[in-house]
Amino acid sequence: MWQGAHMGQLRMLTGKLFLSAYHGTHVMKTLSQTDLSSCVTGDVRSSIGEAIFKKEVWYPEENPSPLPAERNIEDLSYERLKELVLRYIGK
Question: How far is CA 36 from the centre of its chain?
Answer without folding.
Answer: 18
